[in-house]
UniProtKB/TrEMBL annotation:
Entry keyword rRNA-binding: no
Keywords annotated in UniProt: Membrane, Transmembrane, Transmembrane helix
Keyword Membrane in record: yes
Organism in which the protein naturally occurs: Urochloa decumbens
Transmembrane feature ranges: 12-37, 49-71, 91-120, 127-144, 150-170
Protein name (database record): NADH dehydrogenase subunit 4
Length: 195
């Protein structure tokens, strides 16, 4: 009893058509980042290479998903995912991308990988630093691919926490100004909703 070529291609099509590409892209960096704290603490080398490999894997995965499962001719939202998350509040985990968010997600992947490479000299609390980089990466992918307003705001706020901590702990001489900017953005985005 074996599989014929047609059965295998149908199975492949089914798996690839309904595979949660965007959920994997959102969850992988934060999950892999939480494992950094279990790595042996023998200098910064292991955490650096681990983070660079996760960023590279994530970038390659998103490039593969977008090259083979995204039709550029279709202007509608693609790679849709919709599942109930919190039933009481009717909150859904809705992800999807269109042409505008495609570029933002690819640019996020490329720049985060480059930023991780540029952060090679970081030695103070390096595991925390690389965890925060991966947490920021995860929330940015979720921010650009969210199709639910509440999910968008959650991802926005989850992005600001690592940015604030990265700037306050490893920022340069003008870190005070840089720390105040995300707070200003939060206040400005809330004004239309509360007025």
């Amino acid at each position: 009893m074996g599989f014929s070529g047609q059965n295998v291609s149908c199975l492949y099509y089914f798996i690839m058509s309904y595979f949660p590409w965007l959920t994997i892209l959102v969850i992988l960096p934060i999950f892999a980042g939480s494992l950094i704290f279990f790595l042996p603490h023998k200098g910064n080398k292991i955490a650096r290479w681990y983070t660079i490999s996760i960023c590279s894997l994530e970038f390659l995965l998103m490039t593969y998903a977008f090259c083979y499962h995204f039709q550029l001719e279709d202007p509608l939202i693609q790679l849709k995912e919709d599942s109930k998350w919190i039933d009481v509040l009717d909150f859904h985990w809705r992800l999807g991308i269109d042409g505008l968010s495609l570029g933002s997600i690819l640019l996020t992947g490329f720049i985060t990988t480059l930023a991780t490479l540029a952060a090679w000299p970081v030695t103070r609390n390096s595991r925390l630093f690389y965890f925060l980089m991966l947490a920021m990466y995860s929330s940015q992918i979720g921010l650009f691919s969210s199709r639910d307003l509440l999910l968008f705001f959650i991802m926005w706020e989850l992005e600001l926490i690592p940015i604030y901590l990265l700037l306050s702990m490893w920022g340069g001489g003008e870190r005070g100004v840089c720390i105040q900017l995300p707070s200003l953005f939060c206040i400005l985005q809330a004004v239309p909703f509360f007025s």
